[in-house]
Write a structure and sequence with these properties.
The complex is a heterodimer of chains A (312) and B (293). Chain A is an all-alpha fold and 312 residues long. Helices cover 69% and strands 0% of the residues of chain A. Chain A contains 18 helices and no strands. In chain A, α4 (63-74) packs across α15 (250-270), α5 packs across α9 and α12 packs across α17 (284-298). Chain A starts with a helix and ends in a 5-residue tail after the last helix. With 293 residues, chain B is mainly α. Chain B contains 13 helices and two strands. In chain B, α5 crosses α7, α5 (117-127) packs parallel to α11 and α12 (248-258) runs antiparallel to α13 (262-289). The longest helix of chain B has 31 residues, at 64-94. The two termini of chain B are 30 Å apart. In chain B, 44% of the residues are buried. At the A-B interface, α2, α5, α6, α7 and α10 of A face α1, α3, α4, α5 and α7 of B.
Chain lengths: 312, 293
Amino acid sequence: MAPASEKLKGPQRRDWNKLVVHLLLLFSVGLIGFPLYYGFVISTQSMEEVTRNPQVLLPSSHLWENYSRIWNRLQMGRLLFNSAVVALVVSFGKILISILSAYAIVYFNFRGKQIAFWMIFITLMLPVPVRIISTYQVVTELGWVDTYAGLTIPLIASATATFLFRQFYLTIPDELVDAAKIDGSGPLRFLWSILLPNSGANIAALFVVMFIYGWNQYLWPLMVTNSEKMRVVVTGIASTIPLNSMPPRWHSGAGSVSIRVASRTRAAASQSPAPRRLICQSSPARRAANAALTAITTCSPAYFHRTYKPQS
Amino acid sequence: MKKSIFQNRWLPYLLIAPQLIVVIVFFFWPAFDTLRLAVFQTSPFGDRQVFVGLKNFTDLLSSPEYYRSVLHSFIFSLGVTFLGLTFSLFLATLANQKISGLPFYRTAVLWTYGIAPPVSGVIWLFIFHPSYGILTYLLSRVTSYEFNWLLKGWVAMALVIFAATWAHLGYNIAFFLAALQTIPKSVTEAAKVDGASGFSLFRWITFPLLSPVTFFLFIMNMVFSFFETFGIIHAVTQGGPGDTTTIMVYKTYVDGFVHLRMGSSAAQSAILMALVIFLTVLQFRYTERKVFY
Protein backbone atom coordinates (compact mmCIF):
# COMPACT_ATOMS: atom_id res chain seq x y z
CA MET A 1 0.00 0.00 0.00
CA ALA A 2 1.32 3.40 -0.96
CA PRO A 3 0.98 6.09 1.70
CA ALA A 4 -1.96 8.48 1.37
CA SER A 5 0.18 11.42 0.36
CA GLU A 6 1.43 9.59 -2.69
CA LYS A 7 -2.05 8.69 -3.80
CA LEU A 8 -2.95 12.37 -3.93
CA LYS A 9 -0.48 13.27 -6.64
CA GLY A 10 -1.39 14.76 -9.99
CA PRO A 11 -4.99 15.66 -10.83
CA GLN A 12 -6.35 14.22 -7.58
CA ARG A 13 -4.18 16.46 -5.47
CA ARG A 14 -5.30 19.50 -7.46
CA ASP A 15 -8.96 18.58 -6.89
CA TRP A 16 -8.23 18.30 -3.21
CA ASN A 17 -6.68 21.80 -3.21
CA LYS A 18 -9.68 23.22 -4.99
CA LEU A 19 -12.01 21.72 -2.44
CA VAL A 20 -10.05 23.40 0.36
CA VAL A 21 -10.22 26.74 -1.48
CA HIS A 22 -13.97 26.33 -1.96
CA LEU A 23 -14.48 25.52 1.72
CA LEU A 24 -12.36 28.46 2.90
CA LEU A 25 -14.19 30.82 0.55
CA LEU A 26 -17.61 29.59 1.61
CA PHE A 27 -16.65 29.97 5.24
CA SER A 28 -15.42 33.52 4.67
CA VAL A 29 -18.49 34.46 2.64
CA GLY A 30 -20.60 33.19 5.52
CA LEU A 31 -18.53 35.15 8.01
CA ILE A 32 -18.87 38.36 6.00
CA GLY A 33 -22.57 37.82 5.40
CA PHE A 34 -23.44 36.83 8.95
CA PRO A 35 -23.80 40.34 10.46
CA LEU A 36 -26.28 41.34 7.76
CA TYR A 37 -28.22 38.09 8.14
CA TYR A 38 -28.25 38.53 11.91
CA GLY A 39 -29.61 42.07 11.59
CA PHE A 40 -32.31 40.84 9.26
CA VAL A 41 -33.31 37.92 11.51
CA ILE A 42 -33.64 40.19 14.53
CA SER A 43 -35.75 42.58 12.48
CA THR A 44 -38.32 39.80 11.99
CA GLN A 45 -38.59 38.83 15.64
CA SER A 46 -40.70 40.06 18.51
CA MET A 47 -39.23 41.55 21.66
CA GLU A 48 -39.63 38.23 23.51
CA GLU A 49 -37.80 36.33 20.80
CA VAL A 50 -34.97 38.84 20.62
CA THR A 51 -34.34 38.72 24.36
CA ARG A 52 -34.50 34.94 24.55
CA ASN A 53 -31.22 33.29 25.50
CA PRO A 54 -29.92 31.67 23.35
CA GLN A 55 -31.47 33.44 20.40
CA VAL A 56 -33.07 31.53 17.55
CA LEU A 57 -31.21 32.47 14.40
CA LEU A 58 -34.16 31.93 12.06
CA PRO A 59 -36.54 34.54 10.68
CA SER A 60 -39.77 34.86 12.63
CA SER A 61 -43.20 36.26 11.75
CA HIS A 62 -43.00 39.84 12.99
CA LEU A 63 -41.38 41.37 9.96
CA TRP A 64 -44.32 43.47 8.81
CA GLU A 65 -45.14 44.65 12.33
CA ASN A 66 -41.57 45.82 13.06
CA TYR A 67 -41.01 47.43 9.70
CA SER A 68 -44.27 49.35 9.70
CA ARG A 69 -43.68 50.53 13.25
CA ILE A 70 -40.22 51.86 12.54
CA TRP A 71 -41.40 53.28 9.22
CA ASN A 72 -44.00 55.39 11.01
CA ARG A 73 -41.93 56.28 14.03
CA LEU A 74 -38.98 57.59 12.04
CA GLN A 75 -40.98 58.95 9.10
CA MET A 76 -38.85 56.59 7.08
CA GLY A 77 -40.35 57.68 3.77
CA ARG A 78 -39.18 61.20 4.33
CA LEU A 79 -35.73 60.10 5.49
CA LEU A 80 -35.25 57.87 2.46
CA PHE A 81 -36.36 60.71 0.23
CA ASN A 82 -33.85 63.05 1.88
CA SER A 83 -31.06 60.51 1.52
CA ALA A 84 -31.93 59.99 -2.13
CA VAL A 85 -31.87 63.74 -2.76
CA VAL A 86 -28.51 64.09 -1.01
CA ALA A 87 -26.95 61.10 -2.76
CA LEU A 88 -28.21 62.12 -6.21
CA VAL A 89 -27.34 65.81 -5.95
CA VAL A 90 -23.92 65.03 -4.50
CA SER A 91 -23.04 62.40 -7.09
CA PHE A 92 -24.34 64.34 -10.11
CA GLY A 93 -22.94 67.60 -8.77
CA LYS A 94 -19.49 66.11 -8.27
CA ILE A 95 -19.49 64.56 -11.74
CA LEU A 96 -20.74 67.72 -13.43
CA ILE A 97 -18.35 70.22 -11.88
CA SER A 98 -15.45 67.79 -12.20
CA ILE A 99 -16.06 67.22 -15.90
CA LEU A 100 -16.09 70.97 -16.45
CA SER A 101 -12.97 71.72 -14.44
CA ALA A 102 -10.99 68.77 -15.84
CA TYR A 103 -11.96 69.94 -19.33
CA ALA A 104 -10.70 73.43 -18.57
CA ILE A 105 -7.44 72.07 -17.17
CA VAL A 106 -6.67 69.70 -20.05
CA TYR A 107 -7.93 71.60 -23.10
CA PHE A 108 -7.07 75.21 -22.30
CA ASN A 109 -4.06 77.23 -21.35
CA PHE A 110 -4.90 79.95 -18.92
CA ARG A 111 -3.28 81.99 -16.23
CA GLY A 112 -3.45 80.33 -12.82
CA LYS A 113 -4.11 76.86 -14.23
CA GLN A 114 -1.51 75.19 -12.01
CA ILE A 115 -2.78 77.01 -8.93
CA ALA A 116 -6.36 75.97 -9.67
CA PHE A 117 -5.29 72.37 -10.15
CA TRP A 118 -3.37 72.30 -6.88
CA MET A 119 -6.22 73.92 -5.00
CA ILE A 120 -8.54 71.15 -6.12
CA PHE A 121 -5.88 68.58 -5.25
CA ILE A 122 -5.45 69.94 -1.72
CA THR A 123 -9.11 69.30 -0.87
CA LEU A 124 -8.03 65.66 -0.50
CA MET A 125 -6.26 66.75 2.66
CA LEU A 126 -9.21 68.62 4.14
CA PRO A 127 -11.88 66.11 5.18
CA VAL A 128 -14.83 67.48 7.18
CA PRO A 129 -13.42 66.67 10.66
CA VAL A 130 -10.39 68.95 10.21
CA ARG A 131 -12.48 72.05 9.48
CA ILE A 132 -15.61 71.08 11.35
CA ILE A 133 -16.53 74.24 13.29
CA SER A 134 -15.66 76.77 10.62
CA THR A 135 -17.48 74.97 7.80
CA TYR A 136 -20.54 74.87 10.00
CA GLN A 137 -20.20 78.61 10.59
CA VAL A 138 -19.98 79.29 6.87
CA VAL A 139 -23.19 77.34 6.30
CA THR A 140 -24.86 79.21 9.16
CA GLU A 141 -23.91 82.55 7.68
CA LEU A 142 -25.27 81.53 4.30
CA GLY A 143 -28.55 80.61 6.05
CA TRP A 144 -28.26 77.05 4.78
CA VAL A 145 -28.74 75.18 8.06
CA ASP A 146 -31.52 72.62 7.67
CA THR A 147 -31.75 73.00 3.90
CA TYR A 148 -30.94 70.68 1.01
CA ALA A 149 -28.39 73.23 -0.19
CA GLY A 150 -26.56 72.98 3.13
CA LEU A 151 -26.69 69.18 3.03
CA THR A 152 -25.30 68.87 -0.47
CA ILE A 153 -23.35 71.80 -1.89
CA PRO A 154 -20.47 71.78 0.64
CA LEU A 155 -19.85 68.14 -0.33
CA ILE A 156 -19.74 68.43 -4.10
CA ALA A 157 -16.12 69.44 -4.66
CA SER A 158 -14.18 66.40 -5.80
CA ALA A 159 -10.47 66.06 -6.37
CA THR A 160 -10.96 62.36 -7.09
CA ALA A 161 -13.46 62.89 -9.90
CA THR A 162 -11.45 65.78 -11.36
CA PHE A 163 -8.33 63.59 -11.50
CA LEU A 164 -10.21 60.73 -13.05
CA PHE A 165 -11.57 62.89 -15.86
CA ARG A 166 -8.26 64.67 -16.34
CA GLN A 167 -6.47 61.35 -16.64
CA PHE A 168 -9.08 60.14 -19.12
CA TYR A 169 -8.98 63.27 -21.28
CA LEU A 170 -5.21 62.98 -21.52
CA THR A 171 -5.65 59.59 -23.21
CA ILE A 172 -7.94 61.02 -25.89
CA PRO A 173 -5.89 61.37 -29.09
CA ASP A 174 -5.11 64.89 -30.28
CA GLU A 175 -6.28 63.98 -33.77
CA LEU A 176 -9.82 63.96 -32.46
CA VAL A 177 -9.55 67.61 -31.44
CA ASP A 178 -7.96 68.53 -34.75
CA ALA A 179 -10.69 66.76 -36.67
CA ALA A 180 -13.36 68.50 -34.63
CA LYS A 181 -11.70 71.86 -35.22
CA ILE A 182 -11.52 71.26 -38.97
CA ASP A 183 -15.21 70.40 -38.93
CA GLY A 184 -15.77 73.79 -37.34
CA SER A 185 -16.74 72.73 -33.82
CA GLY A 186 -16.02 75.03 -30.90
CA PRO A 187 -14.85 73.92 -27.45
CA LEU A 188 -18.32 73.43 -25.97
CA ARG A 189 -19.50 71.48 -29.00
CA PHE A 190 -16.42 69.23 -28.69
CA LEU A 191 -17.14 68.62 -25.01
CA TRP A 192 -20.78 67.83 -25.62
CA SER A 193 -20.55 65.77 -28.80
CA ILE A 194 -17.17 64.05 -28.55
CA LEU A 195 -15.92 63.89 -24.96
CA LEU A 196 -19.14 63.26 -23.06
CA PRO A 197 -20.36 60.35 -25.21
CA ASN A 198 -16.97 58.72 -24.66
CA SER A 199 -16.94 59.27 -20.89
CA GLY A 200 -19.80 56.84 -20.17
CA ALA A 201 -17.66 54.24 -18.45
CA ASN A 202 -15.99 56.78 -16.17
CA ILE A 203 -19.25 58.49 -15.34
CA ALA A 204 -20.92 55.18 -14.48
CA ALA A 205 -18.08 54.08 -12.22
CA LEU A 206 -17.93 57.44 -10.49
CA PHE A 207 -21.67 57.57 -10.08
CA VAL A 208 -21.81 54.29 -8.15
CA VAL A 209 -19.00 55.29 -5.82
CA MET A 210 -20.19 58.86 -5.29
CA PHE A 211 -23.81 57.79 -4.77
CA ILE A 212 -22.71 55.48 -1.97
CA TYR A 213 -20.47 58.24 -0.59
CA GLY A 214 -23.40 60.67 -0.49
CA TRP A 215 -25.83 58.14 0.91
CA ASN A 216 -23.45 57.09 3.69
CA GLN A 217 -22.69 60.60 4.97
CA TYR A 218 -23.15 60.90 8.72
CA LEU A 219 -21.17 63.69 10.40
CA TRP A 220 -22.16 66.41 7.96
CA PRO A 221 -25.95 65.75 8.00
CA LEU A 222 -25.76 65.43 11.78
CA MET A 223 -24.33 68.94 12.04
CA VAL A 224 -26.30 70.89 9.44
CA THR A 225 -29.78 69.52 10.16
CA ASN A 226 -31.74 70.04 13.31
CA SER A 227 -35.33 69.26 12.38
CA GLU A 228 -36.70 65.73 12.09
CA LYS A 229 -37.84 66.46 8.58
CA MET A 230 -34.39 67.13 7.19
CA ARG A 231 -32.57 64.16 8.66
CA VAL A 232 -31.15 61.48 6.38
CA VAL A 233 -31.75 57.80 6.87
CA VAL A 234 -28.31 56.90 8.25
CA THR A 235 -28.53 59.44 11.07
CA GLY A 236 -32.15 58.38 11.60
CA ILE A 237 -31.17 54.75 12.10
CA ALA A 238 -28.40 55.65 14.50
CA SER A 239 -30.86 57.72 16.55
CA THR A 240 -32.99 54.60 17.21
CA ILE A 241 -30.25 53.15 19.39
CA PRO A 242 -31.17 53.98 22.97
CA LEU A 243 -27.94 54.53 24.79
CA ASN A 244 -27.18 51.98 27.49
CA SER A 245 -30.85 51.18 28.04
CA MET A 246 -32.17 47.69 28.58
CA PRO A 247 -34.03 45.80 27.33
CA PRO A 248 -33.04 47.00 23.92
CA ARG A 249 -35.43 48.09 21.26
CA TRP A 250 -33.27 46.73 18.60
CA HIS A 251 -35.72 44.75 16.69
CA SER A 252 -37.07 48.07 15.45
CA GLY A 253 -33.56 49.35 14.88
CA ALA A 254 -32.74 46.24 12.92
CA GLY A 255 -35.81 46.80 10.81
CA SER A 256 -34.58 50.14 9.71
CA VAL A 257 -31.16 48.72 8.96
CA SER A 258 -32.63 46.22 6.55
CA ILE A 259 -34.79 48.81 4.89
CA ARG A 260 -31.80 50.97 4.36
CA VAL A 261 -29.60 48.24 3.05
CA ALA A 262 -32.30 46.94 0.74
CA SER A 263 -33.04 50.32 -0.74
CA ARG A 264 -29.38 51.09 -1.10
CA THR A 265 -28.70 47.80 -2.80
CA ARG A 266 -31.62 48.32 -5.12
CA ALA A 267 -30.40 51.78 -5.98
CA ALA A 268 -26.86 50.60 -6.56
CA ALA A 269 -28.00 47.58 -8.55
CA SER A 270 -30.14 49.60 -10.89
CA GLN A 271 -27.45 52.24 -11.24
CA SER A 272 -24.40 50.19 -11.92
CA PRO A 273 -24.05 49.73 -15.65
CA ALA A 274 -20.59 48.33 -16.03
CA PRO A 275 -18.04 50.08 -18.15
CA ARG A 276 -18.71 48.95 -21.65
CA ARG A 277 -15.62 46.87 -22.15
CA LEU A 278 -16.68 44.64 -19.28
CA ILE A 279 -20.18 43.98 -20.51
CA CYS A 280 -19.05 41.63 -23.22
CA GLN A 281 -18.69 38.93 -20.62
CA SER A 282 -21.40 36.39 -20.22
CA SER A 283 -22.95 35.93 -16.81
CA PRO A 284 -24.71 38.71 -14.90
CA ALA A 285 -22.91 37.78 -11.68
CA ARG A 286 -19.53 38.15 -13.34
CA ARG A 287 -20.62 41.45 -14.82
CA ALA A 288 -21.72 42.69 -11.40
CA ALA A 289 -18.48 41.60 -9.77
CA ASN A 290 -16.36 43.23 -12.44
CA ALA A 291 -18.42 46.39 -12.42
CA ALA A 292 -17.97 46.72 -8.69
CA LEU A 293 -14.26 46.06 -8.97
CA THR A 294 -13.79 48.59 -11.71
CA ALA A 295 -15.95 51.21 -10.07
CA ILE A 296 -14.19 51.02 -6.72
CA THR A 297 -10.66 50.89 -8.04
CA THR A 298 -10.91 53.43 -10.84
CA CYS A 299 -12.32 55.98 -8.45
CA SER A 300 -9.28 56.23 -6.33
CA PRO A 301 -7.12 59.24 -7.00
CA ALA A 302 -3.63 58.01 -6.49
CA TYR A 303 -3.04 54.47 -7.30
CA PHE A 304 -4.83 52.82 -10.11
CA HIS A 305 -5.15 55.61 -12.57
CA ARG A 306 -1.90 54.80 -14.16
CA THR A 307 -1.39 51.19 -13.33
CA TYR A 308 -4.66 49.31 -13.41
CA LYS A 309 -6.39 48.36 -16.62
CA PRO A 310 -9.38 46.11 -16.04
CA GLN A 311 -9.13 42.81 -17.86
CA SER A 312 -11.66 42.19 -20.58
CA MET B 1 0.34 67.60 -22.16
CA LYS B 2 -2.02 68.19 -25.01
CA LYS B 3 -0.66 69.80 -28.14
CA SER B 4 -4.04 70.57 -29.61
CA ILE B 5 -5.83 72.98 -27.38
CA PHE B 6 -8.57 75.51 -27.67
CA GLN B 7 -7.94 79.24 -27.51
CA ASN B 8 -10.38 81.17 -25.42
CA ARG B 9 -9.95 84.07 -23.09
CA TRP B 10 -12.75 83.56 -20.59
CA LEU B 11 -14.27 80.12 -21.19
CA PRO B 12 -11.75 78.13 -19.09
CA TYR B 13 -12.38 80.37 -16.09
CA LEU B 14 -16.10 79.90 -16.49
CA LEU B 15 -15.68 76.13 -16.68
CA ILE B 16 -13.50 75.82 -13.61
CA ALA B 17 -15.39 78.43 -11.57
CA PRO B 18 -18.09 76.19 -9.98
CA GLN B 19 -15.54 73.78 -8.55
CA LEU B 20 -13.23 76.58 -7.39
CA ILE B 21 -16.05 78.47 -5.67
CA VAL B 22 -17.05 75.37 -3.68
CA VAL B 23 -13.41 74.65 -2.89
CA ILE B 24 -12.73 78.17 -1.65
CA VAL B 25 -15.95 78.73 0.27
CA PHE B 26 -16.25 75.31 1.92
CA PHE B 27 -12.68 74.05 2.08
CA PHE B 28 -10.07 76.81 2.04
CA TRP B 29 -11.83 79.51 3.96
CA PRO B 30 -12.96 77.12 6.76
CA ALA B 31 -9.50 75.53 6.94
CA PHE B 32 -7.93 78.96 7.25
CA ASP B 33 -10.54 80.01 9.79
CA THR B 34 -9.90 76.85 11.81
CA LEU B 35 -6.23 77.74 12.04
CA ARG B 36 -7.20 81.25 13.12
CA LEU B 37 -9.64 79.99 15.77
CA ALA B 38 -6.92 77.72 17.12
CA VAL B 39 -4.97 80.74 18.40
CA PHE B 40 -8.01 82.47 19.90
CA GLN B 41 -10.10 81.81 22.94
CA THR B 42 -13.77 82.14 22.00
CA SER B 43 -16.65 82.56 24.43
CA PRO B 44 -19.28 79.79 24.20
CA PHE B 45 -21.70 81.99 22.27
CA GLY B 46 -19.02 83.18 19.89
CA ASP B 47 -19.49 86.87 20.72
CA ARG B 48 -16.02 87.51 22.14
CA GLN B 49 -12.62 86.36 20.97
CA VAL B 50 -9.29 86.89 22.71
CA PHE B 51 -5.96 86.18 21.08
CA VAL B 52 -4.11 83.62 23.20
CA GLY B 53 -1.28 82.52 20.93
CA LEU B 54 -0.39 78.86 21.27
CA LYS B 55 -2.18 78.44 24.60
CA ASN B 56 -4.82 76.12 23.12
CA PHE B 57 -2.07 73.83 21.86
CA THR B 58 -0.04 73.86 25.06
CA ASP B 59 -3.20 73.16 27.06
CA LEU B 60 -3.93 70.16 24.82
CA LEU B 61 -0.40 68.85 24.98
CA SER B 62 -0.41 69.00 28.76
CA SER B 63 -3.76 67.28 29.14
CA PRO B 64 -3.70 63.51 29.77
CA GLU B 65 -7.21 63.28 28.26
CA TYR B 66 -5.86 64.40 24.92
CA TYR B 67 -3.00 61.90 24.99
CA ARG B 68 -5.49 59.17 25.79
CA SER B 69 -7.58 60.12 22.75
CA VAL B 70 -4.43 59.97 20.60
CA LEU B 71 -3.59 56.55 22.02
CA HIS B 72 -7.14 55.28 21.44
CA SER B 73 -7.05 56.62 17.89
CA PHE B 74 -3.89 54.70 17.11
CA ILE B 75 -5.08 51.48 18.74
CA PHE B 76 -8.32 51.77 16.81
CA SER B 77 -6.75 52.67 13.46
CA LEU B 78 -3.95 50.13 13.60
CA GLY B 79 -6.47 47.50 14.69
CA VAL B 80 -8.81 48.28 11.80
CA THR B 81 -5.95 48.46 9.30
CA PHE B 82 -4.19 45.28 10.39
CA LEU B 83 -7.35 43.20 10.71
CA GLY B 84 -8.81 44.53 7.47
CA LEU B 85 -5.66 44.10 5.37
CA THR B 86 -4.91 40.60 6.64
CA PHE B 87 -8.39 39.27 6.12
CA SER B 88 -8.94 40.95 2.76
CA LEU B 89 -5.56 39.84 1.38
CA PHE B 90 -6.40 36.29 2.43
CA LEU B 91 -9.82 36.49 0.79
CA ALA B 92 -8.61 38.18 -2.38
CA THR B 93 -5.91 35.53 -2.83
CA LEU B 94 -8.53 32.81 -2.48
CA ALA B 95 -10.91 34.57 -4.86
CA ASN B 96 -8.13 34.77 -7.43
CA GLN B 97 -7.59 31.00 -7.72
CA LYS B 98 -8.74 29.14 -10.79
CA ILE B 99 -11.92 27.56 -9.48
CA SER B 100 -15.54 27.43 -10.58
CA GLY B 101 -18.06 29.89 -9.20
CA LEU B 102 -15.58 32.77 -9.07
CA PRO B 103 -18.10 35.48 -10.04
CA PHE B 104 -20.34 34.40 -7.19
CA TYR B 105 -17.51 34.47 -4.68
CA ARG B 106 -16.27 37.84 -5.86
CA THR B 107 -19.68 39.42 -5.57
CA ALA B 108 -20.18 37.78 -2.18
CA VAL B 109 -17.00 39.30 -0.77
CA LEU B 110 -17.26 42.74 -2.39
CA TRP B 111 -20.75 43.82 -1.39
CA THR B 112 -19.81 45.25 2.02
CA TYR B 113 -18.43 48.24 0.13
CA GLY B 114 -21.85 49.89 0.35
CA ILE B 115 -22.34 49.52 4.11
CA ALA B 116 -22.43 52.84 5.96
CA PRO B 117 -20.07 52.72 8.96
CA PRO B 118 -22.78 53.78 11.48
CA VAL B 119 -25.10 51.05 10.20
CA SER B 120 -22.31 48.54 10.56
CA GLY B 121 -21.88 49.85 14.11
CA VAL B 122 -25.55 49.25 14.87
CA ILE B 123 -25.41 45.66 13.58
CA TRP B 124 -22.25 44.87 15.59
CA LEU B 125 -23.93 46.39 18.61
CA PHE B 126 -26.55 43.63 18.34
CA ILE B 127 -23.85 41.00 18.05
CA PHE B 128 -21.98 42.34 21.10
CA HIS B 129 -25.03 43.06 23.24
CA PRO B 130 -24.10 42.25 26.87
CA SER B 131 -27.17 40.16 27.65
CA TYR B 132 -28.58 38.94 24.36
CA GLY B 133 -25.90 39.32 21.68
CA ILE B 134 -24.94 36.14 19.87
CA LEU B 135 -21.20 36.63 20.35
CA THR B 136 -21.56 37.34 24.06
CA TYR B 137 -23.70 34.21 24.34
CA LEU B 138 -21.18 32.01 22.52
CA LEU B 139 -18.33 33.35 24.63
CA SER B 140 -20.28 32.77 27.83
CA ARG B 141 -20.42 29.08 26.94
CA VAL B 142 -16.64 28.72 26.99
CA THR B 143 -15.54 31.21 29.64
CA SER B 144 -16.96 32.92 32.66
CA TYR B 145 -15.26 36.22 31.75
CA GLU B 146 -17.90 38.90 31.30
CA PHE B 147 -17.67 40.34 27.77
CA ASN B 148 -19.73 43.43 28.54
CA TRP B 149 -18.74 46.36 26.36
CA LEU B 150 -20.70 48.73 28.58
CA LEU B 151 -18.29 47.98 31.40
CA LYS B 152 -15.03 46.92 29.78
CA GLY B 153 -13.21 49.38 27.59
CA TRP B 154 -11.30 46.87 25.52
CA VAL B 155 -14.50 45.01 24.59
CA ALA B 156 -16.00 48.29 23.40
CA MET B 157 -12.82 48.92 21.41
CA ALA B 158 -13.08 45.46 19.86
CA LEU B 159 -16.70 46.19 18.96
CA VAL B 160 -15.92 49.40 17.08
CA ILE B 161 -12.84 47.85 15.43
CA PHE B 162 -14.92 44.95 14.09
CA ALA B 163 -17.65 47.31 12.92
CA ALA B 164 -15.20 49.58 11.08
CA THR B 165 -13.30 46.66 9.56
CA TRP B 166 -16.47 45.03 8.29
CA ALA B 167 -17.66 48.25 6.67
CA HIS B 168 -14.34 48.68 4.86
CA LEU B 169 -13.70 45.09 3.73
CA GLY B 170 -15.21 45.48 0.27
CA TYR B 171 -12.90 48.38 -0.54
CA ASN B 172 -9.76 46.49 0.51
CA ILE B 173 -10.71 43.29 -1.29
CA ALA B 174 -11.47 45.23 -4.48
CA PHE B 175 -7.97 46.69 -4.56
CA PHE B 176 -6.22 43.45 -3.72
CA LEU B 177 -8.21 41.58 -6.38
CA ALA B 178 -7.49 44.21 -9.01
CA ALA B 179 -3.79 44.14 -8.13
CA LEU B 180 -3.67 40.34 -8.22
CA GLN B 181 -5.10 40.41 -11.72
CA THR B 182 -2.29 42.65 -12.92
CA ILE B 183 0.42 40.16 -11.92
CA PRO B 184 1.68 38.73 -15.22
CA LYS B 185 1.17 35.00 -15.69
CA SER B 186 4.71 34.65 -17.02
CA VAL B 187 6.13 35.59 -13.61
CA THR B 188 4.11 33.06 -11.64
CA GLU B 189 4.72 30.39 -14.26
CA ALA B 190 8.45 30.99 -14.19
CA ALA B 191 8.35 30.63 -10.42
CA LYS B 192 6.42 27.39 -10.75
CA VAL B 193 9.02 26.03 -13.16
CA ASP B 194 11.60 26.83 -10.51
CA GLY B 195 9.62 24.71 -8.06
CA ALA B 196 7.65 27.31 -6.10
CA SER B 197 4.12 26.40 -5.18
CA GLY B 198 1.41 27.17 -2.66
CA PHE B 199 2.65 29.23 0.22
CA SER B 200 6.18 29.84 -1.04
CA LEU B 201 4.76 31.15 -4.32
CA PHE B 202 2.63 33.57 -2.32
CA ARG B 203 5.39 34.54 0.09
CA TRP B 204 8.19 35.12 -2.43
CA ILE B 205 6.36 36.14 -5.61
CA THR B 206 2.82 37.36 -5.07
CA PHE B 207 3.25 39.23 -1.81
CA PRO B 208 6.29 41.30 -2.92
CA LEU B 209 4.51 42.17 -6.16
CA LEU B 210 1.54 43.34 -4.10
CA SER B 211 3.58 45.63 -1.87
CA PRO B 212 2.68 48.88 -3.68
CA VAL B 213 -1.03 48.22 -3.30
CA THR B 214 -0.55 47.01 0.27
CA PHE B 215 1.19 50.26 1.15
CA PHE B 216 -1.50 52.28 -0.62
CA LEU B 217 -4.21 50.40 1.29
CA PHE B 218 -2.36 50.85 4.56
CA ILE B 219 -2.52 54.63 4.13
CA MET B 220 -6.11 54.58 2.90
CA ASN B 221 -7.18 52.45 5.87
CA MET B 222 -5.45 54.76 8.31
CA VAL B 223 -7.19 57.74 6.73
CA PHE B 224 -10.51 55.89 6.75
CA SER B 225 -10.26 54.82 10.38
CA PHE B 226 -9.14 58.24 11.54
CA PHE B 227 -11.60 60.36 9.59
CA GLU B 228 -14.55 58.32 8.33
CA THR B 229 -15.49 56.30 11.38
CA PHE B 230 -16.96 59.09 13.46
CA GLY B 231 -20.45 57.67 12.85
CA ILE B 232 -19.63 54.33 14.48
CA ILE B 233 -18.35 55.95 17.66
CA HIS B 234 -21.14 58.51 17.79
CA ALA B 235 -23.96 56.04 17.13
CA VAL B 236 -22.72 53.13 19.22
CA THR B 237 -20.35 53.88 22.11
CA GLN B 238 -20.40 57.69 22.35
CA GLY B 239 -16.74 57.40 23.23
CA GLY B 240 -17.41 55.24 26.27
CA PRO B 241 -17.26 53.47 28.59
CA GLY B 242 -15.28 56.25 30.26
CA ASP B 243 -13.27 57.57 27.34
CA THR B 244 -11.94 54.22 26.12
CA THR B 245 -13.29 54.61 22.58
CA THR B 246 -12.92 58.39 22.32
CA ILE B 247 -10.87 58.82 19.16
CA MET B 248 -9.41 62.18 18.12
CA VAL B 249 -12.13 63.11 15.65
CA TYR B 250 -14.85 62.30 18.15
CA LYS B 251 -13.17 64.39 20.84
CA THR B 252 -12.85 67.29 18.39
CA TYR B 253 -16.57 67.11 17.70
CA VAL B 254 -17.57 66.82 21.37
CA ASP B 255 -15.32 69.67 22.48
CA GLY B 256 -16.56 71.93 19.68
CA PHE B 257 -20.25 71.15 19.50
CA VAL B 258 -21.14 69.82 22.96
CA HIS B 259 -18.77 71.59 25.35
CA LEU B 260 -18.54 74.65 23.04
CA ARG B 261 -14.79 74.95 23.59
CA MET B 262 -14.09 76.38 20.14
CA GLY B 263 -10.43 77.17 20.69
CA SER B 264 -9.52 73.72 21.91
CA SER B 265 -11.59 72.05 19.21
CA ALA B 266 -9.98 74.17 16.50
CA ALA B 267 -6.52 73.33 17.84
CA GLN B 268 -7.40 69.63 17.68
CA SER B 269 -8.64 70.13 14.12
CA ALA B 270 -5.32 71.75 13.24
CA ILE B 271 -3.41 68.76 14.61
CA LEU B 272 -5.66 66.40 12.63
CA MET B 273 -5.02 68.51 9.55
CA ALA B 274 -1.27 68.04 9.98
CA LEU B 275 -1.83 64.31 10.32
CA VAL B 276 -3.94 63.94 7.19
CA ILE B 277 -1.50 66.08 5.19
CA PHE B 278 1.33 63.83 6.37
CA LEU B 279 -0.54 60.67 5.36
CA THR B 280 -1.55 62.05 1.96
CA VAL B 281 1.95 63.24 1.13
CA LEU B 282 3.37 59.88 2.18
CA GLN B 283 0.89 58.10 -0.04
CA PHE B 284 1.52 60.19 -3.13
CA ARG B 285 5.27 60.18 -2.66
CA TYR B 286 5.63 56.46 -2.40
CA THR B 287 2.92 55.18 -4.71
CA GLU B 288 4.33 57.43 -7.44
CA ARG B 289 7.71 55.78 -7.26
CA LYS B 290 6.77 52.13 -6.88
CA VAL B 291 10.10 51.08 -5.45
CA PHE B 292 9.04 48.11 -3.42
CA TYR B 293 10.65 45.10 -4.94
